[in-house]
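Lecture notes, structural biology module. Today: joint structure prediction for complexes of two components.
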Amino acid sequence: MPSYNIKVNGLTRTVESLDPSQPLLYVLRGFGLTATKFGCGLGQCGACTVLVDRKAVRSCLLPISGVKGKSVTTLEGLSTTGKPHPLQAAFIKEQVPQCGYCTSGMIMSAAALLTEKRKPTESEVRSALDGNLCRCGTHVRVVRAVLAASGQGA
Amino acid sequence: MNAPSQFPRFSRRAILKGGALIVGFSLGGLHIEAFGQRLPSAPRVLDPKEVDAFLAVNADGTVTIFSGKVDLGQGLRISFRQIVAEELGVAIDKINLIEGDTALTPNQGRTSGSNGIQRGGMQLRQAAATARNALFLLAAQKLNVKPDEINLENGAMSPRAGGKGLTFADLVGGKRFDLKLDPKTPLKDPAYYTIVGKSLPRPDVPAKCTGKHVYIHDFSVPGMLHARVIRPPAIGAKLESVDESSVKDIAGVKVVRIKDFLAVVANEEWTAVRAARALKAQWSAWEGLPAQDKLIEALRSDPSITDQVLVTKGAPVASPPQDAKTLKASFFWPMQSHASLGPSCAVAYVREDSAAIWTASQGTHGNQETFARFLGLLKERVRLIYFEGSGCYGMNGHEDAAADAAIISRAVKRPVRVQWSREDELGWDPKGPPQLIDIAGTVGADGSIVDWQTQMWIPQTTKGLPSIPLLGPNAAGLDNVVGLNTGLISQNGDPPYGAEHVQVVVHWLKNAPLRPAPLRSPGKPANCFAVESFFDEMAAVIGADPVEMRLRGLKDPRGVELIKRVAAMMKWQTRPSPGPNKTAAIARGRGISYVHYKHDETYVAMGMEVVMERSSGRLKVERVFCAHDCGQIINPDGVRAQVEGCILQTISRVLMEEVKFDRSRVSSVDWASYPILRFSDAPKIEIDLIDRPTMPPLGAGEAACAAVGAAIANAIYDASGARVRTVPFTPERVKAALGGQSS
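The predicted structure, tokenised, for the full assembly:
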């Protein structure tokens, strides 16, 4: 069976899959890393967003063969300090999630944004997250939390 | 704590019998037998008339709440704890909560109708008050003091005069109360509240932000298989043949076919997904849906209609004033999807004589009967256990997915997890029903309503359904519920402003084009959109200011206060609509609407500012102002989150959402064809919450939804003079309205 080495949250893992087109999402969830959610399988909603080499990627579309040798970060591995990552802390403080199904993808998209730009404007936050859908209507709080995590806002 | 004794004076007596302490006391003639038996491994008390159904004091002093109402992200987990901690007198961190488990929690009805707090929470409050008073009595007896000589603090009861005390755990830890819920037990005076009314954080939020929260999608049991159901390409299609050889190259796949029910099962989830995509099946043709572009006419002329007069007030005015104006208009709200972000999911394990169903259903208790029926099991042998899913706002596909899992589990004799695809969810979730609403009315030059007549064409809910008909049992030819459930969609069809004569007639339809279910604030967003838009049309026709005319007609002081607050928040300028710049290329406008939800629940006033581009008809809600009175507030931030959610989700529904279908099936099955609100569309929101601590708490999860449509429509009119009466307000519709066409 073909196998693929990928680094997930700092640990090197070997994935065996008969299907090279198996999306990363299913591999991650198979590892028990269930923070990353299936939303559409079409790359349209952002619920499955993870970081691949620090860039936000839709894991529902990314074949495992395309992740070989790369470094993947999921919500579970976003913080490396044992304490919540500043984005997680801000999402908690702002009480962002309702159902929370989109939250993982939101935080990962925001993390990629903050890597690129330490202090984004509100409009840049909205634009960076425009591909992440939320059905409960937490948008206002998400924006507030991302700005707070970047040391801006109230 | 400086609160006075929480124990009111009662006459009482205590007796000891059969080794078990039983305390009884009489209160206004009501006699209560009270507690003392050990709680061995006895089954749970589930009768909602019993305190034990709701509350247990554990041996370690913690308290467990058993709630038939469930938290879908709307914050009941903290609000229920606040209610019980306050009323019982324990610290909030000592309270656990078990939700929606038919084996452990009382049946409090579906978590729906925005009644989690106002009904479910109030049952808990009464249970806690009953328990607390009984604990005072028991402590008094054991400490040999009077009940009102006892201080209670965080589950510890001590004589006010000093000396050794007792804890709740000492008194009833691990035992039953054996006590009927006493509706007359006095409740704690809100003046002494220290927990209710505070914005305590929701306990599920940290886990949701760190990935530790276990959703139904993440839940697994040993030996569990993954399955996918293959839905037909047409709603009424029959399965003619299956070519199992089409999946022979995918190792470890089993095909399950029961009549028209078709599924694939595998060890790995991805294998099941691949197999579901690869499996070739032949289905019969079916084209039983109405033509979408003729839907309104189809509703109006449906042969199944039965009429019902819902509201009649006053008498028709024989000769209206000469300067009165008469107008009429027709409004339409389309079918909409719950559009849950995560497709529905469930896990089931069905054995010969019993079944366990793990589900995100908002009605585990009601579905126990439905599942028992199609599985052919005794109701008591079917256990439904709630696990949070992706946000549901009434009844999405969660129950269907659970039925799918149960049917497949029974066939393969293993625990089975089913998750739907995006296409399944948007295509097959039960839909908010279509609503056609005509209004005719006459308004006097002074703004008084002379006559108001509303007619609705809406599907009728079948009485007494335990759930809705489920897809799996239907396809598999199993015993199924028959009927429709739309929720209470006929309310708020009459104006709250007083009128000489009001009549609301509903033309009930026996069927709905697509399987309906209650969708957040069932029916009220459409009805209030129509009523509050039409009221604005009346204001416009006599040249009245929309706020002034509402204040003129409204008598309820709570409503009046809200409208005044919203007007102040948005610095409302008194003038009739449309505004002076109605021909501008980029037009701005403001609109207001007001709702007294179901006419006896939460009050909402909503102001909106929109900007629209005349050339394209594109529209953006820029700012929202909401004043909200839901009586006593349990958790202000929780209410705020719910109101924000109501506003944003309903803006999405009003501006963008309509289920599209051809003659065979739903065709809007992804986020491109069924778009919802994005960050770039989300307005700024200001919310003014009015807390009324001495009044009963009312729901906050729905009411604000109802005020959204008209606030936007009225703002469009104010900006441009164009009246949009059909949801969603797409650029094409807005443009048509600008061109003077009815839209």
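Point to remember: The first strand of chain A starts at residue 3 and ends at 8.
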